[in-house]
Protein backbone atom coordinates (compact mmCIF):
# COMPACT_ATOMS: atom_id res chain seq x y z
CA UNK A 1 0.00 0.00 0.00
CA UNK A 2 0.87 3.66 -0.39
CA UNK A 3 -0.64 6.64 1.45
CA UNK A 4 -3.04 7.10 -1.48
CA UNK A 5 -4.28 3.50 -1.14
CA UNK A 6 -4.40 3.47 2.64
CA UNK A 7 -5.63 6.95 3.55
CA UNK A 8 -6.67 9.17 0.66
CA UNK A 9 -5.49 10.15 -2.82
CA UNK A 10 -6.36 11.21 -6.35
CA UNK A 11 -7.38 8.39 -8.67
CA UNK A 12 -8.23 8.35 -12.42
CA UNK A 13 -11.89 8.15 -13.36
CA UNK A 14 -13.48 6.72 -16.56
CA UNK A 15 -13.82 10.23 -18.02
CA UNK A 16 -10.08 10.82 -18.17
CA UNK A 17 -9.99 13.06 -15.10
CA UNK A 18 -9.13 12.48 -11.45
CA UNK A 19 -11.30 12.08 -8.38
CA UNK A 20 -10.33 12.22 -4.69
CA UNK A 21 -10.87 8.72 -3.33
CA UNK A 22 -10.79 7.59 0.28
CA UNK A 23 -8.51 4.69 1.16
CA UNK A 24 -9.31 1.54 3.08
CA UNK A 25 -8.24 2.84 6.52
CA UNK A 26 -10.04 6.17 6.07
CA UNK A 27 -13.26 4.35 5.19
CA UNK A 28 -12.80 1.98 8.13
CA UNK A 29 -12.42 4.88 10.57
CA UNK A 30 -15.52 6.59 9.18
CA UNK A 31 -17.51 3.43 9.74
CA UNK A 32 -16.18 3.11 13.31
CA UNK A 33 -16.98 6.76 14.02
CA UNK A 34 -20.60 6.20 13.06
CA UNK A 35 -20.80 3.19 15.42
CA UNK A 36 -19.07 4.49 18.54
CA UNK A 37 -20.54 1.82 20.80
CA UNK A 38 -18.67 -0.98 19.01
CA UNK A 39 -14.94 -1.72 19.01
CA UNK A 40 -13.36 -1.98 15.55
CA UNK A 41 -10.11 -3.89 14.97
CA UNK A 42 -8.00 -3.15 11.89
CA UNK A 43 -5.45 -5.93 11.24
CA UNK A 44 -2.40 -5.26 9.07
CA UNK A 45 -0.56 -8.43 8.11
CA UNK A 46 3.21 -8.14 7.44
CA UNK A 47 3.10 -4.54 8.63
CA UNK A 48 6.86 -4.07 8.19
CA UNK A 49 6.74 -4.78 4.46
CA UNK A 50 5.78 -1.21 3.65
CA UNK A 51 7.36 2.19 4.19
CA UNK A 52 5.27 2.91 7.25
CA UNK A 53 6.17 6.58 7.56
CA UNK A 54 4.92 7.23 4.03
CA UNK A 55 1.87 4.99 4.30
CA UNK A 56 0.62 6.48 7.59
CA UNK A 57 1.84 10.04 6.99
CA UNK A 58 0.30 12.47 9.49
CA UNK A 59 -1.65 9.58 11.03
CA UNK A 60 1.47 8.61 12.99
CA UNK A 61 0.49 11.20 15.55
CA UNK A 62 -3.22 10.40 15.40
CA UNK A 63 -2.50 6.74 16.26
CA UNK A 64 -1.52 7.72 19.79
CA UNK A 65 -4.09 6.71 22.41
CA UNK A 66 -4.31 10.21 23.88
CA UNK A 67 -4.91 11.85 20.49
CA UNK A 68 -8.09 10.05 19.47
CA UNK A 69 -10.50 12.90 20.21
CA UNK A 70 -11.99 15.28 17.59
CA UNK A 71 -9.95 18.08 19.20
CA UNK A 72 -6.86 16.55 17.57
CA UNK A 73 -8.42 16.22 14.12
CA UNK A 74 -6.24 17.62 11.32
CA UNK A 75 -6.50 18.25 7.57
CA UNK A 76 -5.13 15.37 5.55
CA UNK A 77 -2.57 15.73 2.77
CA UNK A 78 -5.20 15.89 0.03
CA UNK A 79 -7.86 17.79 1.99
CA UNK A 80 -9.43 20.43 -0.24
CA UNK A 81 -10.63 22.62 2.61
CA UNK A 82 -9.12 23.34 6.02
CA UNK A 83 -12.44 22.40 7.60
CA UNK A 84 -12.14 18.89 6.16
CA UNK A 85 -10.43 17.33 9.19
CA UNK A 86 -9.82 13.73 10.18
CA UNK A 87 -9.12 11.85 13.41
CA UNK A 88 -8.91 8.18 14.37
CA UNK A 89 -11.80 7.27 16.71
CA UNK A 90 -11.02 5.86 20.15
CA UNK A 91 -12.92 2.65 19.31
CA UNK A 92 -10.43 1.75 16.53
CA UNK A 93 -7.69 -0.72 17.47
CA UNK A 94 -4.81 -1.29 15.04
CA UNK A 95 -3.09 -4.68 15.16
CA UNK A 96 0.07 -5.14 13.09
CA UNK A 97 1.66 -8.55 12.52
CA UNK A 98 5.28 -8.95 11.47
CA UNK A 99 8.04 -11.52 11.11
CA UNK A 100 11.21 -10.10 12.62
CA UNK A 101 13.30 -12.91 11.13
CA UNK A 102 12.80 -11.72 7.55
CA UNK A 103 16.19 -10.29 6.62
CA UNK A 104 14.84 -8.54 3.51
CA UNK A 105 12.83 -6.06 5.61
CA UNK A 106 13.82 -3.00 7.59
CA UNK A 107 12.94 -2.89 11.26
CA UNK A 108 10.02 -0.73 12.37
CA UNK A 109 11.31 2.78 13.04
CA UNK A 110 11.15 4.16 16.57
CA UNK A 111 8.57 6.82 15.69
CA UNK A 112 6.02 4.10 14.99
CA UNK A 113 7.36 1.57 17.50
CA UNK A 114 6.62 3.78 20.50
CA UNK A 115 2.98 4.00 19.43
CA UNK A 116 2.44 0.24 19.67
CA UNK A 117 2.67 -2.42 22.35
CA UNK A 118 4.75 -5.39 21.15
CA UNK A 119 3.84 -8.98 21.95
CA UNK A 120 6.03 -11.93 20.96
CA UNK A 121 4.27 -15.01 19.56
CA UNK A 122 6.39 -18.10 20.20
CA UNK A 123 6.22 -21.69 18.91
CA UNK A 124 3.80 -23.76 20.97
CA UNK A 125 5.22 -27.28 20.57
CA UNK A 126 5.37 -27.76 24.34
CA UNK A 127 1.89 -26.33 24.88
CA UNK A 128 -0.86 -28.60 26.11
CA UNK A 129 -3.27 -26.91 23.72
CA UNK A 130 -1.14 -27.78 20.70
CA UNK A 131 -0.85 -31.36 21.90
CA UNK A 132 -4.63 -31.56 22.33
CA UNK A 133 -5.15 -30.03 18.89
CA UNK A 134 -3.09 -32.79 17.24
CA UNK A 135 -4.52 -35.66 19.27
CA UNK A 136 -7.32 -37.43 17.49
CA UNK A 137 -6.16 -36.35 14.05
CA UNK A 138 -2.42 -37.12 14.03
CA UNK A 139 -1.09 -40.51 15.10
CA UNK A 140 0.07 -40.33 18.73
CA UNK A 141 3.57 -41.60 17.88
CA UNK A 142 3.96 -38.86 15.28
CA UNK A 143 2.79 -36.21 17.77
CA UNK A 144 5.61 -37.25 20.12
CA UNK A 145 8.13 -37.15 17.25
CA UNK A 146 7.04 -33.65 16.21
CA UNK A 147 7.24 -32.22 19.72
CA UNK A 148 10.54 -33.88 20.63
CA UNK A 149 12.47 -33.28 17.41
CA UNK A 150 11.29 -29.76 16.57
CA UNK A 151 11.82 -28.66 20.18
CA UNK A 152 15.43 -29.87 19.91
CA UNK A 153 15.82 -28.09 16.57
CA UNK A 154 14.52 -24.82 18.01
CA UNK A 155 16.99 -25.13 20.87
CA UNK A 156 19.77 -25.42 18.29
CA UNK A 157 18.46 -22.33 16.48
CA UNK A 158 18.24 -20.30 19.70
CA UNK A 159 21.83 -21.16 20.60
CA UNK A 160 23.14 -19.85 17.27
CA UNK A 161 23.56 -16.27 18.47
CA UNK A 162 25.67 -15.18 15.48
CA UNK A 163 23.30 -15.78 12.55
CA UNK A 164 20.01 -16.92 14.06
CA UNK A 165 18.46 -16.73 17.53
CA UNK A 166 14.92 -16.97 19.01
CA UNK A 167 13.32 -15.03 16.15
CA UNK A 168 14.20 -17.81 13.69
CA UNK A 169 12.61 -20.73 15.54
CA UNK A 170 10.36 -23.12 13.59
CA UNK A 171 6.70 -22.36 14.26
CA UNK A 172 4.00 -24.89 15.06
CA UNK A 173 1.92 -23.80 12.04
CA UNK A 174 4.03 -26.12 9.84
CA UNK A 175 2.35 -29.03 11.61
CA UNK A 176 -1.26 -27.85 11.72
CA UNK A 177 -3.26 -30.21 9.45
CA UNK A 178 -5.37 -28.47 6.82
CA UNK A 179 -7.93 -31.24 6.43
CA UNK A 180 -6.79 -32.05 2.89
CA UNK A 181 -4.15 -34.63 3.79
CA UNK A 182 -4.80 -38.28 2.93
CA UNK A 183 -3.18 -39.51 6.13
CA UNK A 184 -1.52 -38.03 9.19
CA UNK A 185 1.07 -40.63 10.00
CA UNK A 186 4.84 -40.62 9.62
CA UNK A 187 4.71 -40.13 5.80
CA UNK A 188 2.87 -36.84 6.40
CA UNK A 189 5.48 -35.74 8.93
CA UNK A 190 8.27 -36.74 6.54
CA UNK A 191 6.72 -34.77 3.67
CA UNK A 192 6.54 -31.62 5.83
CA UNK A 193 10.20 -32.01 6.80
CA UNK A 194 11.44 -32.65 3.26
CA UNK A 195 9.32 -30.05 1.46
CA UNK A 196 9.11 -27.23 4.03
CA UNK A 197 11.51 -27.57 6.97
CA UNK A 198 14.61 -28.95 5.21
CA UNK A 199 14.86 -26.12 2.64
CA UNK A 200 14.57 -23.61 5.48
CA UNK A 201 17.31 -25.33 7.48
CA UNK A 202 19.62 -25.36 4.46
CA UNK A 203 19.00 -21.63 4.07
CA UNK A 204 19.66 -20.99 7.77
CA UNK A 205 23.02 -22.77 7.63
CA UNK A 206 23.87 -22.02 4.00
CA UNK A 207 27.52 -21.63 4.98
CA UNK A 208 27.65 -25.02 6.72
CA UNK A 209 26.02 -27.59 4.44
CA UNK A 210 27.31 -30.49 6.53
CA UNK A 211 25.62 -29.21 9.68
CA UNK A 212 22.38 -28.51 7.81
CA UNK A 213 22.28 -32.03 6.39
CA UNK A 214 23.04 -33.53 9.80
CA UNK A 215 20.04 -31.68 11.28
CA UNK A 216 17.77 -32.83 8.45
CA UNK A 217 18.93 -36.42 8.96
CA UNK A 218 18.14 -36.17 12.68
CA UNK A 219 14.62 -34.99 11.88
CA UNK A 220 14.10 -37.93 9.54
CA UNK A 221 15.82 -40.67 11.55
Question: What can you see in these coordinates?
Answer:
There is one protein chain. By secondary structure, this protein is an alpha+beta fold. Helices cover 38% and strands 11% of the residues. It is built from nine helices and six strands, in the order αββαβααβββααααα. β1 (8-12) and β2 (18-22) form a beta hairpin. α8 (186-204) runs antiparallel to α9. The longest helix is centred in the last third of the chain and has 20 residues, at 140-159.
Short description:
The chain has 221 residues and is of the alpha+beta class. Helix content is 38%, strand content 11%. The model has no long low-confidence stretch (mean pLDDT 88).
List descriptors.
11% strand; alpha+beta; 221 residues; elongated; two-stranded parallel sheet
Helical run tally: 9
Which bin fits the share of residues in helices? Answer: 25-40%
Largest sheet: 2 strands, antiparallel
Instruction: Sum up the overall morphology in one term.
Output: elongated
Low-confidence stretches: none
Give me the side-by-side strand order of the main sheet: 1-2
Terminal residue distance: 45 Å
Structural class: alpha+beta
Instruction: Compute the CA-based radius of gyration.
Output: 23 Å
Overall pLDDT metric: 88
Give, in order, the helices and strands.
Answer: HEEHEHHEEEHHHHH
How many distinct beta strands?
Answer: 6
Please indicate the percent range of residues in DSSP E strands (runs of 2 or more). Answer: 5-15%
Amino acid sequence: YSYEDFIQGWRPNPNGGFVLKNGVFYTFCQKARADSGTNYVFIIDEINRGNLSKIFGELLMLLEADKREPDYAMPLTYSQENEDRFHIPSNVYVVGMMNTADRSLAMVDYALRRRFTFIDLKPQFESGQFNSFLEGTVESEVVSIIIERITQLNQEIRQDKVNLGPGFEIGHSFFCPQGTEEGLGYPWYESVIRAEIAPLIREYWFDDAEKAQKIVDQLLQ
